[in-house]
Design goal:
nine-stranded antiparallel beta sheet, globular, 28% strand, homodimer, 354 residues, alpha+beta
């Protein structure tokens, strides 16, 4: 821990949403200050941060001041413009590093990386125009999903192709952006591993959680997940393999499909992950502190699961249920977002179930 | 929960030390903002608060602006000047209320209150001058402790009287302040109950912890405490009796001496308490969130203990041990105080022991 950030040092966080908010609290627990960089006003993370810069990612002056004011930089979302990263990395270390970002920012690069590691993914093909889409559909078949290679989240920038006749409309949906065609995977359920890796190469993974999505948004994560002991080991080994291959520093979310042919990697997120929120009430050291520990050069903490937990996201009008939920033994975590919007993540609940 | 503070409402906290810091984080978890009022610059709570006012407790303008900017007021220490409270209570509700503060701010009032409730305390007597001290020593005997009635903490404002000849020096130490003579209690160990009471009268107490002090400062708290089932029940009943008698809203710390003649109340603190820090890693809802829940009109949360914990304070140079402690499975909580001083509480560690 020679190089660990001392008490009072500042962690810069790109993005001021709920993940930045919970990272900020975790940093405070280790005696660190945080400085949030966020284009939008009234960022949830701002309530618990030492400083907030409200500026866009192309504001060179603001980025420079931010980079000079912090001791290390991390982020709560992966779609940070490359130009901002190019500037910031000259001013302070960025963890997780550029390789992890470059890999996860582009679905084609990510899938190719995973395949090169010997891991299973959905069948995929590069799509740049109508001809390459036709060729891809010939190989992969239908149903399939056409997705933009970059900047996709929560089901946006995606078009299903149920039959060949849907291809033109799907391609039009991409609006000329480079795309990837992904074949459907016949899976029974989805699990995710939240893994952490320190600068010394130490790896610690949380027990896999089982995820249920609705309308492309995570609804619940349940631990323990329905996995055989062998699958559980595989899941953790897959996450560790990815972390090591990227020389990763920080917490990563790895989504996996459970199939009769083994675990198939759906996607990786180089950050703390919604499906790891259960760790706040199921472990001594939660994913947010684990991430800050890694980024700040602390040894990784104890992520052993001590309880069975169901994490439920509170989305939009789910907030109406908070008064009832608060009466139960559940742990409520709200993000301080005053305006309720449909599909907006407003908070989450961790229920201890055993 | 009709009157619960809505998301985005602001809790005002008097005092910006580590308790304010951890209260602020707990408030954020419930979607609330905090506004810290603290005379000293660079307050630890400021790192995780939405707003900070740096001003003295006799700054009427600053107090007025603070009172108008918040939806409810709470505090991290009990020695708030009465004039500040008189002003603030006209601007926003203060929880815990004035009665609890008035009782705990004055050792004589507190002991009398406890005795009137039928609870056991150390023998005590009002001391205003040499004559009353002589009379008190005649009744109580030596050894005894002379303490100022108000504004004592961590062993300050206290003088031991081992024999009658020490009386003059002890009285001189009081510097003319009203004092109380307390007889020694022959106790085997000290425990404390962290109790909470909501505005609806609901009471929830954490499992008692066993405290070890060094040089008048809390060193460790261990749960479970060494108590018989009967003593454990008594401890919780005593705390509940005090909470109800004060029509209390919030968390209170009740220190108890374990003696062959039963539990003797040492003192009460109308706030979150150092001996309740173990709850951060031993319970789903910690004392800080429990306090905010009560103060904000939320239902009390689940404070069931799910682990055995030893909490150790990190005082002064104990910070040198943090790198080693960080390598263990323990949960480290640092307060962000850059300057290490002898006797200064810098952080604490919660070790799960079972």
């Amino acid at each position: 821990m020679t190089d660990a950030l001392p008490v009072g040092a500042t962690v810069g966080i790109l993005g001021g949403g709920q993940l930045g908010r919970m990272l900020s609290v975790a940093a405070a627990r280790l005696g660190l200050k945080t400085h949030i960089y966020e284009p939008g006003a009234g960022a949830p993370a701002g309530d618990v941060a030492h400083r907030v810069t409200t500026a866009s990612y192309d504001d060179v002056e603001a980025l420079t001041a931010f980079g000079n004011a912090v001791d290390v930089i991390t982020y709560e979302f992966e779609n940070i413009p490359t130009s901002a990263l190019d500037l910031l990395e000259t001013l302070a270390p960025i963890h997780p590093g550029r390789q992890a970002l470059a890999t996860s920012q582009d679905r084609l690069v990510e899938k190719t990386f995973l395949q090169d590691l010997g891991l299973q993914t959905a069948p995929f093909a590069d799509v740049t125009d109508a001809a390459s889409l036709t060729a891809a559909l010939d190989r992969i078949g239908t149903p399939a999903i056409l997705k933009t290679r970059r900047f996709g989240y929560d089901g946006k920038g995606q078009a299903r192709i149920m039959m060949a006749a849907d291809a033109d409309a799907a391609l039009a949906d991409m609006a000329g952006a480079p795309a990837i065609l992904e074949g459907f995977v016949n899976f029974s359920h989805e699990v995710s591993v939240i893994g952490a890796r320190g600068p010394d190469g130490a790896v610690a993974c949380y027990d896999p959680g089982e995820n249920v999505h609705e309308d492309g948004i995570l609804r619940t994560t349940t631990v323990p997940a329905r996995l055989t002991p062998g699958q559980r080991t595989d899941a953790v080994l897959i996450a560790a393999k990815i972390l090591n291959a990227l020389d990763y520093v920080g917490v990563m979310g790895v989504e996996l499909f459970v199939t009769p042919k083994g675990l198939i990697v759906n996607e990786i997120a180089p950050r703390v992950h919604n499906s790891g929120h259960w760790t706040q009430n199921g472990c001594t050291i939660c994913q947010f502190e684990q991430h800050i520990r890694a980024v700040a050069g602390w040894p990784l903490g104890d992520g052993t699961r001590h309880a069975d937990v169901v994490m439920e996201n509170l989305i939009g009008d789910d907030m109406d249920r908070v008064p009832e939920i608060a009466k139960t033994g559940a742990a409520v975590h709200l993000y301080g977002k005053a305006e309720v919007k449909s599909g907006r993540k407003m908070g989450h609940v961790n229920r201890i179930t055993g």
